[in-house]
Design a protein that fits this description.
- With 268 residues, the chain is an alpha/beta fold.
- It folds into 2 domains: 154 residues, Rossmann fold, CATH 3.40.50; 97 residues, ProC C-terminal domain-like fold (Orthogonal Bundle).
- The chain is built from 12 helices and 8 strands.
- β4, α4 and β5 form a beta-alpha-beta unit.
- α8 packs across α9.
- It is elongated and about 65 Å long.
- The structure holds NADP nicotinamide-adenine-dinucleotide phosphate.
- NADP nicotinamide-adenine-dinucleotide phosphate binds next to α1 and α4.
Length: 268
């Protein structure tokens, strides 16, 4: 089976990450098109060997897959103006834009995949959740999976509603780790360390901990217990976090994020 041709509508950060990932994975840039009203963005993508267009419908010609990578606020007007063919798979990475919106703005029979990637996709270390409507064929599912795999791991969900929880966990997730890192750096400084040393120690520790969790495949709760000796320093810190009900605060914070994801969709 030959590689599907792909038209990227919106050529910003995420489109750039996806296109670079595909080309690094051996994809011929000849089968990729991108459109963006911004000349600077078009030049960035053109430098990768991809044909670029100012007009979105010109980019669609001959494409098997149309990947929507504009800001969510622009999605409605952009999609409503697209002259999509029935057979073209529409993949949206726009946060909060539901399959029902995309269906309403296209044709009832349009095959649609909605995705929730996250920012580490920019380093090809992302994780993307995907959800397909009934019109998507098995071959199109494989094509969507191949495309998003270019920027990290992919998981499929059957229920679109799960994307709200996924947005809370992995979509917004990098920010929670940055929050914790920021607090740890501040703590290091208050304990007397130079700021750059506190930052290096914190970030390398975060990377090491994430690698331990992925490479040992041991649940984080067990890893935490393994490094907590009775009466030791780690136990003293964790006791303080427990007394402040930190675990429950994290659960409430993610509930808020999931709720916001749902209400954002209603605002479109
Ligand atoms: N960044 C992430 O990690 C992340 C994670 C999850 C989901 N997403 C989703 O990915 C989408 C893209 O995000 P991004 O970070 O790549 O945003 P971005 O860098 O702002 O890219 C969007 C691009 O679309 C262009 N655009 C605006 N109007 C257009 C139109 N009418 N036709 C074609 N292109 C148009 C913008 O051009 P101008 O600059 O001229 O406006 C911009 O170059 C968003 O919907 C976001 O929710 C992103």
């Amino acid at each position: 089976m030959s590689d599907p041709s792909i038209a990227f509508i919106g050529a910003g950060n995420m489109a750039h990450a996806l296109i670079s990932g595909l080309i690094d994975a051996g994809r011929d840039p000849q089968g990729l098109h991108a459109s963006d009203p911004d000349e600077g963005q078009r030049n960035n993508i053109r430098a990768l060997g991809v044909r670029v267009f100012e007009n979105n419908n010109a980019a669609l010609e001959g494409a098997d897959i149309v990947l929507l990578a504009v800001k969510p606020q622009a999605a409605r007007s952009v999609v409503q103006a697209l002259e999509l063919r029935h057979s073209q798979l529409l993949i949206s990475i726009c946060a909060g834009v539901a399959v029902r919106h995309l269906r309403e703005w296209t044709q009832a029979t349009q095959p649609i995949v909605r995705c929730m990637p996250n920012t580490p996709a920019l380093l090809r270390a992302g994780i993307t959740a995907l959800c397909a409507n009934e019109q998507v064929s098995d071959a199109q599912r494989s094509q969507a999976q191949m495309l998003l795999s270019a920027v990290g791991r992919v998981v499929w969900v059957n229920e679109e509603a799960d994307l709200d929880a996924i947005t809370a966990v992995s979509g917004s997730g990098p920010a929670y780790f940055f929050y914790l890192m920021d607090a740890m750096i501040d703590a290091g400084v208050r304990l007397g360390l130079p700021a750059d040393l506190a930052a290096t120690l914190t970030v390398e520790t975060a990377l090491g901990a994430a690698r331990m969790a992925t490479e040992t495949k041991t649940p984080p709760g067990i890893l935490r217990a393994n490094v907590t000796s009775p009466g030791g320093t780690t136990e003293a810190a964790l006791k303080s976090l427990d007394e402040a009900h930190t675990h429950e605060h994290v659960v409430s914070a993610l509930r808020e994020a999931a709720l916001r994801a749902r209400t954002l969709a209603e605002e479109l």
